[in-house]
């Protein structure tokens, strides 16, 4: 196995050029590539049952089939809502980094192409939430202030790539496992298939950026980039089991939240989603001790 720390022989522009070629060959316009008029299929799920955070718990056993499917709808909407604010913030960070980049370089062109992908994804997520008859989970109060003002201040340089990976890889790994699940509503399966295709390029670009940055940045910068993502571990632990979802299906939000974060099935799903990212961050020296402890405590890493 080759080490992720081995000196890259390709330049950043070479990598960007290859990704630009992939973007030309395979990109989607969800406005026309999703059948928005197709009816929802009665009895189909919005996430597979085993991906629901309460699956296997006593609470789950007491829910009717209808309530379980409604919970899967709320859980999907929660993930898509998180996707919208994550991609909004990622685009802001990428655009800021571009201010000091060479506008003739392929690196800059790929970065702009990725932002275009994310803009279409945000439209797709919003439209699917609307199409499946749900309301999004909006950021509010202190959460809005953190995403709008604090995170852009903290996430700089190397940390931009780590942020991109933390936001993209966990969801991507989960979507890959479930997008062809026979129980899924067709519109959800199509959304996931489109998203995983385009995210594969984004992850390749962010991994290359993270790998490359490690060789050039100071120890202090690496320490910050390698530990700052500890905050994401705690944030995701909470957000994956967003209490507002449970309230919408008529459960006691606090009781359901506790059941979810201690649910071995949910913890196993989180660990499946995080495994590849955890291994990558470790291999490039971006899994600092604070972050490692945080991902373990939050149930993402065993
Ligand atoms: Fe995306
Ligand atoms: Fe992305």
Q: What does this entry look like structurally?
A:
With 302 residues, the protein is mainly α. The two termini are 23 Å apart. α7 (158-178) crosses α13 (264-283). It is built from 14 helices and no strands. The chain has one domain (43-297): Ribonucleotide Reductase, subunit A (Orthogonal Bundle). The site of one fe (ii) ion has 5 residues, from α5 and α8.
Quaternary state of the chains: single chain
Name the ligand types.
fe (ii) ion
Provide the low-confidence segments as ranges. Answer: none
Report strand %: under 5%
Average pLDDT, rounded to a whole number, is 93
The major β-sheet equals:
none
H-E string: HHHHHHHHHHHHHH
- CATH C-level class: Mainly Alpha
Terminal-residue CA separation: 23 Å
CATH superfamily: Ribonucleotide Reductase, subunit A
Question: Any idea what the shape is?
Answer: globular
CATH topology call: Ribonucleotide Reductase, subunit A
Q: Into how many domains do the coordinates divide?
A: 1
What is the architecture at the second tier of CATH?
Orthogonal Bundle
Question: What is the count of β-strands?
Answer: 0
How many helices? The count is 14
Which structural category do the helix and sheet elements fall into?
mainly alpha
Helix content bin: over 70%
Rg of Cα set: 19 Å
């Amino acid at each position: 196995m080759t080490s992720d720390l081995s000196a890259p022989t390709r330049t950043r522009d070479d990598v960007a050029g290859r990704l630009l070629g992939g973007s030309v060959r395979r990109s989607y316009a969800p406005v026309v590539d999703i059948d928005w008029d197709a009816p929802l299929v009665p009895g189909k799920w919005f996430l597979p049952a085993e991906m629901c955070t309460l699956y296997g718990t006593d609470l789950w056993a007491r829910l009717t089939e209808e309530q379980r499917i409604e919970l899967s709808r709320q859980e999907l909407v929660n993930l898509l809502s998180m996707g919208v604010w994550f991609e909004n913030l990622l685009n802001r960070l990428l655009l800021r980094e571009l201010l000091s980049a060479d506008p003739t370089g392929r690196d800059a062109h790929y970065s702009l192409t990725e932002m275009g992908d994310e803009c279409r994804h945000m439209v797709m997520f919003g439209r699917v939430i609307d199409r499946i008859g749900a309301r999004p989970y909006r950021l509010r109060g202190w959460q809005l202030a953190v995403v709008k003002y604090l995170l852009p201040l903290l996430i700089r340089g190397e940390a931009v790539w780590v942020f991109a990976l933390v936001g993209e890889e966990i969801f991507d790994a989960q979507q890959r496992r479930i997008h062809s699940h026979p129980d899924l509503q067709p519109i959800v399966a199509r959304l996931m298939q489109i998203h995983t295709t385009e995210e594969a390029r984004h992850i390749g670009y962010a991994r290359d950026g993270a790998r490359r940055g490690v060789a050039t940045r100071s120890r202090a910068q690496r320490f910050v980039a390698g530990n700052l993502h500890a905050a994401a571990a705690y944030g995701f632990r909470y957000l994956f089991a967003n209490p507002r979802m449970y309230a919408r299906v008529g459960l006691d939000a606090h009781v359901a939240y506790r059941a979810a974060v201690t649910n071995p099935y949910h913890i196993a799903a989180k660990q499946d989603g995080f495994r590849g990212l955890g291994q990558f961050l470790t291999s490039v020296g971006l899994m600092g001790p604070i972050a490692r402890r945080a991902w373990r405590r939050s149930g993402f890493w065993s």
